[in-house]
């Protein structure tokens, strides 16, 4: 119950932020946003209730190193999940579905995939480290689909798990200070994997991102996608 209350508080605060950020817009725009938020909240309330009733499937949209393993461990205490990181493994029903682990469903397939997966698991996870096209695939408003995404401070994320990309495992957590030179760190800062990693996953197309020259429309589109998910969690709160 405490978990649900904390999450609901986060979702509510997100809505408040959206409204405050539109304070300079016209009244018509404010009313449209308010209406969208109310409609969205009703969808989410139904998804939550259906999960409590045992019909909805929980799907964690897991950006790599965004607390996916921790979240999986906690969900495994509640009920059955896929054997490997909640995203696949030897208990995945591969003979029953055309979809592989970590593969978003097509919009029109959501209604048939949810009960199939729910008959095996109460929660599954999709892990991404590059663009998966989350905008035009899964029906996030489907009443029996409860979606969760954990967000993380981007600088903290880049230091997790021994860096990222080709720089992975070069950071020894037991050596401090590290032996990395200023040149090493500069190369890492400018590495492709360090360029707006989370935004790449949440962007509407594979053209994102271009460092400081990344178009603001990618940020706006990513925010719109996030608003469609049932829960947005801050890793620091877990």
Radius of gyration: 19 Å
Average pLDDT metric: 80
Give the amount of beta strand, in percent: 5-15%
Task: Write down the secondary-structure element order.
Answer: HHEHHEEHHHHE
Strand order of the largest sheet: 2-1-3-4
Give me the count of strands.
4
Structural class: alpha/beta
The level of helicity is 40-55%
Distance between the termini: 14 Å
Which tags fit this structure?
238 residues, alpha/beta, four-stranded parallel sheet, disordered N terminus
Tell me about this structure.
A four-stranded parallel sheet has the order 2-1-3-4. It is an alpha/beta fold and 238 residues long. Helix content is 40%, strand content 10%. The longest helix has 27 residues, at 27-53. It is built from eight helices and four strands; from the N terminus they run H-H-E-H-H-E-E-H-H-H-H-E.
């Amino acid at each position: 119950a405490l978990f649900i209350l904390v999450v609901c508080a986060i979702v509510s605060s997100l809505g408040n932020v959206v409204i405050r950020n539109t304070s300079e817009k016209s009244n018509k725009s404010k009313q449209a946003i308010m209406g969208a938020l109310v409609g969205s909240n009703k969808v989410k309330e139904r998804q939550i209730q259906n999960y409590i009733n045992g019909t909805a499937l929980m799907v964690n949209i897991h950006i790599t190193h965004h607390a996916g393993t921790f979240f999986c461990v906690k969900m495994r205490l509640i009920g059955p999940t896929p054997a490997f990181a909640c995203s696949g493994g030897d208990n995945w029903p591969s003979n029953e579905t055309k979809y592989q682990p970590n593969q978003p469903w097509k919009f029109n397939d959501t209604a048939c995939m949810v009960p199939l997966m729910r008959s095996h698991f109460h929660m599954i996870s999709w892990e991404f480290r590059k663009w998966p096209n989350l905008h035009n695939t899964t029906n996030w408003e489907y009443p029996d689909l409860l979606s969760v995404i954990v967000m993380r401070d981007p600088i903290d994320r880049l230091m997790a798990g021994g860096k990222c990309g080709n720089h992975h495992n070069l950071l020894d957590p037991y050596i401090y200070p590290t032996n990395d030179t200023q040149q090493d760190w500069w190369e890492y800062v400018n590495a492709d994997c360090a360029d707006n990693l989370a935004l790449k996953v949440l962007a509407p197309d594979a053209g994102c991102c271009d460092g400081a020259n990344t178009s603001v429309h990618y940020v706006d589109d990513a925010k719109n996608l996030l608003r469609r998910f049932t829960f947005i969690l801050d890793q620091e709160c877990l």
